Amino acid sequence: MRAGKMNKRYTDFVTELQNGYASALTLVGSRVGEVTVEVSKDRITEVATALRDKFGFEILVDLCGVDYLGYGDSEWETHGATDNGFSRGVNRDVIVPDADTLYHEKRFAVVYHLLSISRNLRVRVRVYCGESNPPIVPSVVDIWSSANWYEREAYDLFGIMFHGHPDLRRILTDYGFIGHPFRKDFPLSGNLEVIYDEEKERVVYQPVSIEPRTLVPRVIRDDTRYTPDSNQSSLGEADG
């Protein structure tokens, strides 16, 4: 991270944080002066407690899950149109893998957004879930009580478990929902649909009847709005 992008309050905080917990965290580079650190999941409880008690981050603003499946794949680096569009949306792979299957160690992550009112600082903390299936990290409910619903949301949408959570269950989807809808390998049309069965005179589940298909290709535009050199030159001419 280029310290010149941060004001003095942030540079002092980063120095203080690294002096006390250099072995527990890694500073992530930022183009805009934000402070982001990565912490191993076996030390997140220690670091989170220190951020609250020693560094004054009394508020957990948000906690969210992330699925990095396919991140950086060559298809998304092309400078032309792709011939299969958003194909991952119609790929009906196994949504709930076998219990013996391990994930890539950096596929799933939990991101914490913290605010210190007393110091007027913000920090983002990222923890990778590792290879475990299901992905699991320690809960921070005992540190910030607001994490209760946030962790339930991450569990519901991404299938990330939080060890020590007092009541980990779904919060947005139905109890009979199959899979976790924010995972990258979850089909866009889902797995089940709900209909009213006239014979049974009640609402029932059935396999989704929507035929999966690719509708939208990804296209890279080449006009001046997306060309850095042209964009900079036009800005310069406008300023002149």
Structural key phrases:
240 residues, 20% helix, Beta Polymerase, domain 2, two-stranded parallel sheet, alpha/beta
3D architecture notes:
This protein is of the alpha/beta class. The protein has a single domain, classed as NADH:ubiquinone oxidoreductase Nqo5 subunit (Beta Polymerase, domain 2). 20% of the residues lie in helices and 22% in strands. Mean pLDDT is 82; it is low at 233-240.
Q: How is the secondary structure organized here?
A:
Layout: H1 8-21, E1 25-28, E2 36-39, H2 44-53, E3 59-67, E4 108-116, E5 121-128, E6 136-138, H3 147-158, E7 161-163, E8 192-197, E9 202-207, H4 228-239
Parallel strand pairs: 2-5, 6-7
Antiparallel strand pairs: 1-2, 3-4, 4-5, 8-9
Short description:
20% of the residues lie in helices and 22% in strands. It has 240 residues and is of the alpha/beta class. The longest helix has 14 residues.
Let me know the CATH homologous superfamily. NADH:ubiquinone oxidoreductase Nqo5 subunit
- The CATH class, by name, is Alpha Beta
Query: Which strand order spans the largest sheet, edge to edge or round the barrel?
Result: 1-2-5-4-3
Q: Give the CA-CA distance, first to last residue.
A: 33 Å
CATH topology: Beta Polymerase, domain 2
> Can you write the helix and strand succession as a string?
HEEHEEEEHEEEH
Radius of gyration (CA) equals 22 Å
Secondary-structure-based class equals alpha/beta
Beta-strand residue fraction:
15-25%
